[in-house]
């Protein structure tokens, strides 16, 4: 025979007429660890692309156009927006259109990684036009034409994203800066294509080259191989036919203008803005200023010396 259940010694919920109360809440211990948001860094050294002769293979690589401009970090905070150059200089006042676009983004705090560019009539980024818009010789003008092509998101609404994989950062960036926009802050879109095919098409359209990024990589400052750059113009012998001035670059040289021999004539092939230090740039500038001629050796379509 089944035994009946035992009666509890006391009612489960106490007396029916007695109110039910939880335990008194303890006061917070100020010494106890509290969950906090990540502090917003004043500056993050940029991740730089390592030069390679050919595009990498494999689905882990995402491809973008290589923009020819100035690297920028756009810091957005409730107290205001700062636009910093790769070297950490505050150029907020020099990019008013980018500043206004940053203020309109639907975000409280963020750090955007991108490139300031000026487009030519065919929609290609033109470094010479960018420098001219910033002032040519004095280098202190305001550039209303500049657009920031953003390609990474390093901080968002109190969270440091540098330890987050690239695919996730891109997903968040695309939610903040949608593709196809016409604002002064635009998304540098990922291009689904084979790297070799994309490089060939980029070169046919007169672009500088392409960028490959490891989808699984975190954001690491420096030139460590997580990002790769493949240029249309590889190593070769070129003639220096002039230079563009810049007060922000070594020796006042923003970029050397180069030409190559084709049959019996010289053809302008582009420019280079890196590869020399302050001393070599100053020496090169001194030598070139002694060789100024009245008529350009090659038509570059740029304001050069």
TrEMBL record:
Region forming the signal peptide: none
**NCBIfam families cross-referenced by the UniProt entry:** NHEJ_ligase_lig (TIGR02779)
Catalysis: reaction(s): ATP + (deoxyribonucleotide)n-3'-hydroxyl + 5'-phospho-(deoxyribonucleotide)m = (deoxyribonucleotide)n+m + AMP + diphosphate
Ranges for the region named Disordered are 1-33
Which UniProt keywords are given for this protein, alphabetically ordered? Ligase
Select a single GO molecular function from the record's annotations and give it.
DNA ligase (ATP) activity
Q: What lineage does the source organism belong to?
A: Bacteria, Pseudomonadati, Pseudomonadota, Alphaproteobacteria, Hyphomicrobiales
Q: Membrane-spanning regions, if any?
A: none
Annotated organism of origin: Rhizobium esperanzae
- EC numbers on record: 6.5.1.1
CDD domains xrefs: Adenylation_DNA_ligase_LigD_LigC (cd07906)
Name of the protein this chain belongs to:
DNA ligase (ATP)
Where is the ATP-dependent DNA ligase family profile domain positioned along the sequence?
150-231
What Pfam family does this protein match (any one)?
DNA_ligase_A_C
Look at the named UniProt entry and state the broad enzyme category this protein falls under: ligase
- Set out the biological process GO terms recorded for this chain's protein: DNA recombination; DNA repair
Q: Which family does it belong to?
A: Belongs to the ATP-dependent DNA ligase family.
- What PROSITE patterns does the annotation carry? DNA_LIGASE_A3
